Structures are given as C-alpha cells and as structure tokens.
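Hi Y.,

Following your request, here is the sequence exactly as I used it, all 121 residues.
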Amino acid sequence: EVQLVESGGGLVQAGGSLRLSCAASGFTFDDYAIGWFRQAPGKEREGVSCISSSDGSTYYVDSVKGRFTISSDNAKNTVYLQMNSLKPEDTAVYYCAASGSSCGAYEYDYWGQGTQVTVSS
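Below is the corresponding structure, written out as tokens. Let me know if you'd prefer a different format.
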C-alpha cells in the first residue's frame, strides 16, 4: 500500500520555525520526485518546493526562497521541509506528493493527507 504521511505541523508565532516530515512507503522512493504543496482557506493549492530523485535538484516558489529548505533522507524514505522565518501568510494545510516523472509534472501520482501549519501574528 502506498502511503505518504506528513507530520510536524502546528501553531507557531511569526518568525518561528517548523520542520515538516513526509514519510513514504509502498513505492520505490528513489524513483520519485517529492514535492510539498500547500492550500490556504479560500485559495488554490500551490507548489511550495520539490526535490528531484534523479539528481537531488531542489525547487522553491519565490515566496519561500531563503526561508524554506527541502531535503531528503533516502535511507529513511523521508523528505523534510525546514521552514524558518514563518509568516502568517504561510498558514495553510501542507501536503507532500510523489511524482514518478519530475518535479514539474502536471499531476502527481501519490498524495499525503496533509498537516496544518498555522502562523500567528
């Protein structure tokens, strides 16, 4: 059974930090790009960051560059999203997803259930 399980969300004050984890199972982790997405109430889902399985390349949406860092521990089949200098506008449900093609895929193959991140001002 394919599973992507996010953890690490919570409530934090503006300027604080959180580290999200995405634990994967049921598929060949090394063959997939893993992305982080978020969706705030009343807004469309947006891609936040992604790490490529082929060469470890990383990608970030402009609004999080310099504040968020994505990393992967292939031995643990886990991808992390370190989020620093959090802002209230980072408040959203964060999802991880796996793509068998690339970070730029139009559709991702597997999705987690999401973890809530709330940043208070």
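The radius of gyration is 13 Å.

Thanks again,
Q.
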